[in-house]
Amino acid sequence: MRMSFGLTFRTAKGRWMANLNRQSSGGSIGLFVPPSPPLDPEKVKELQRFITLSRRLLVMTGAGVSTESGIPDYRSEKVGLYARTNRKPIQHGDFVRSAPVRQRYWARNFVGWPWFSSHQPNPAHWALSNWERLGKLYWLVTQNVDALHTKAGSRRLTELHGCMHRVLCLDCGEQTPRTALQERFEVLNPTWSAEAHGLAPDGDVFLTDEQVQSFQVPCCSRCGGPLKPDVVFFGGTVNPDKVDFVHKRVKEADSLLVVGSSLQVYSGYRFILTAWENKLPIAILNIGPTRSDDLACLKLDSPCGELLPLIDPH
């Protein structure tokens, strides 16, 4: 699959404008979805039986549920960030310790934010929201930070790694909407412009050193402290209270379905171990192998948005 990106920002009468060009021989919808075999009718029937027998179903989603919305993941073969570039995601310790690192991060995030925040739920998000509405889904745990489950109407939801749509002060803990921070960026950088090359799953883009150096970053309006997206960066830890909460939901469930996650990150994998230790049946829907394939009674390699709408939640 051939891909190219161009994201150009410029000012026009005080307002920021963006132009994102994406070209792919596979089309924009499938741009970040890895290849998969055709749907196996027998596997679909097996998943239907799994869902039908579930009374307190817990679903855990990962980046693979959002690739069909146009948001790339990190690990997918050929189309994930690691496959397309040698760039690595920002580390928690680097962000907290270094003002220049924060400046670079926020400059890139500022450029990518209109693109990232504009994405909408795909059929997989809507299907899971419908399962909740009909009483089939007991709890939803997502490792994603894109808010697409919330946009689809999911309420029985834990965002394990936080949400990019919120910003947190590292000193006083004050939370503010990311949209409000975007407005502050625009005020502080009225003539700043940049062309971005490449795109990360969290809306981060790639800028040169020269582009970053002139970018002004606001501080907390309450205490003057540094600001950080309300998400768990690589090398960071999930809030222990949130971990305990999810462990309780897993123990209350009678089955667990993994959707769009390779489970390589321990913060999500540990809940699969809890489910297995509590003898819950585990089904996995993910294109490619996962860390828990040997623990699952059912494994399907299909696009989430293609398969989930076929399942009757009644």
UniProtKB/TrEMBL annotation:
**Do you know which Gene3D superfamilies this protein is assigned to?**
SIR2/SIRT2 'Small Domain, TPP-binding domain
Q: What is its EC number?
A: 2.3.1.-, 2.4.2.-, 2.3.1.286
Instruction: List the GO cellular component terms.
Output: mitochondrial matrix
Q: Which residues form the active site?
A: H161 (proton acceptor)
Q: Which UniProt keywords apply?
A: Metal-binding, Mitochondrion, NAD, Transferase, Transit peptide, Zinc
User: Where primarily located?
Assistant: mitochondrion
Q: Where in the cell is it found?
A: Mitochondrion matrix
Q: Name one GO molecular function term.
A: zinc ion binding
Residue sites binding NAD(+) per the record: 62-82, 143-146, 260-262, 286-288, 304
Binding locations of Zn(2+): C169, C172, C220, C223
The UniProt record lists the Deacetylase sirtuin-type domain at: 37-314
**Cofactor annotation:** Zn(2+)
Task: Please give one Pfam family short name.
Answer: SIR2
Q: Reaction(s) catalyzed by this protein?
A: N(6)-[(R)-lipoyl]-L-lysyl-[protein] + NAD(+) + H2O = 2''-O-lipoyl-ADP-D-ribose + nicotinamide + L-lysyl-[protein]; N(6)-biotinyl-L-lysyl-[protein] + NAD(+) + H2O = 2''-O-biotinyl-ADP-D-ribose + nicotinamide + L-lysyl-[protein]; L-cysteinyl-[protein] + NAD(+) = S-(ADP-D-ribosyl)-L-cysteinyl-[protein] + nicotinamide + H(+); N(6)-acetyl-L-lysyl-[protein] + NAD(+) + H2O = 2''-O-acetyl-ADP-D-ribose + nicotinamide + L-lysyl-[protein]
Cofactor: record remark: Binds 1 zinc ion per subunit.
NCBIfam families from the UniProt entry: PRK05333.1
Q: Describe its assembly.
A: Interacts with GLUD1, IDE and SLC25A5. Interacts with DLAT and PDHX.
Similarity comment text for this entry:
Belongs to the sirtuin family. Class II subfamily.
Free-text function comment from the UniProt entry: Acts as NAD-dependent protein lipoamidase, biotinylase, deacetylase and ADP-ribosyl transferase. Catalyzes more efficiently removal of lipoyl- and biotinyl- than acetyl-lysine modifications. Inhibits the pyruvate dehydrogenase complex (PDH) activity via the enzymatic hydrolysis of the lipoamide cofactor from the E2 component, DLAT, in a phosphorylation-independent manner. Catalyzes the transfer of ADP-ribosyl groups onto target proteins, including mitochondrial GLUD1, inhibiting GLUD1 enzyme activity.
Relay the record's extra comment: According to some authors, ADP-ribosyltransferase activity of sirtuins may be an inefficient side reaction of the deacetylase activity and may not be physiologically relevant.
What is the name attached to this protein's record? NAD-dependent protein lipoamidase sirtuin-4, mitochondrial
